[in-house]
């Protein structure tokens, strides 16, 4: 079971930004790997995953709040999809698809409205994309996700390998 876990690391996807992270304690508890929670060193390493997951969720909330403040009083907008697109564009690049009555990013509908509303929102989005605070939050989220996977590769892998060699 340990080898399978290490070779096919289970992950969960965080809502809104759709970020893949290693399975937390809650995720493992609901999986076929729940027996691994009996290994104390593994369990303690998962506590780090849980803490980092909570911190990432907190940063995602911060990002949503920052965006909501800058896009206040606008109907027909999906703030979650907007946050997703802002994060992806800041961290990986990309462009919006601006249609006659919609703004989309990838397959996500961000806004529906008339042409003037779309142009006004596009200006606001451009300001958000260049906002240093928003960029900083996105960078922190990306760094935390990368740190989680590093923790998995180094510490969780080591704790399971050590427990396997003791058995």
What does this structure look like?
Helices cover 64% and strands 11% of the residues. It is mainly α and 167 residues long. It has one domain. The strands form two sheets. The chain has a three-stranded antiparallel β-sheet with strand order 3-4-5. It has a two-stranded antiparallel sheet with strand order 1-2. The longest helix has 35 residues, at 132-166. The model has no long low-confidence stretch (mean pLDDT 95).
Task: Kindly summarize this structure in a few lines.
With 167 residues, this protein is mainly alpha-helical.
Task: Write out key terms for the chains shown.
167 residues; mainly alpha; two-stranded antiparallel ribbon; elongated
How is this fold's topology laid out?
Elements: H1 2-7, E1 11-14, E2 19-22, H2 25-29, H3 40-70, H4 79-92, E3 97-98, E4 102-105, E5 108-112, H5 115-130, H6 132-166
Antiparallel strand pairs: 1-2, 3-4, 4-5
Helix pairs in contact: 3-4, 3-6, 4-6
């Amino acid at each position: 079971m340990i080898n399978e876990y290490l070779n096919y690391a289970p992950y969960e996807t965080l809502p809104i930004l759709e970020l893949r992270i290693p399975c937390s304690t809650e995720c493992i508890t609901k999986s076929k790997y729940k027996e691994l929670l009996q290994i104390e060193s593994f369990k303690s390493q998962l506590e780090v995953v849980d803490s980092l997951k909570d911190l990432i969720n907190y940063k995602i909330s911060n990002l949503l709040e920052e965006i909501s403040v800058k896009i206040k009083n606008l109907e027909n907008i999906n703030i979650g999809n907007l946050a997703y697109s802002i994060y992806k564009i800041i961290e990986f690049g990309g462009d919006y698809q601006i249609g006659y009555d919609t703004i989309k990013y990838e397959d996500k509908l961000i806004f529906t409205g008339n042409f003037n509303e779309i142009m006004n929102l596009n200006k606001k989005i451009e300001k958000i994309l260049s906002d240093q605070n928003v960029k900083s939050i996105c960078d922190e989220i990306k760094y935390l996700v990368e740190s989680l996977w590093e923790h998995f590769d180094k510490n969780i892998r080591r704790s399971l390998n050590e427990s396997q060699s003791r058995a």
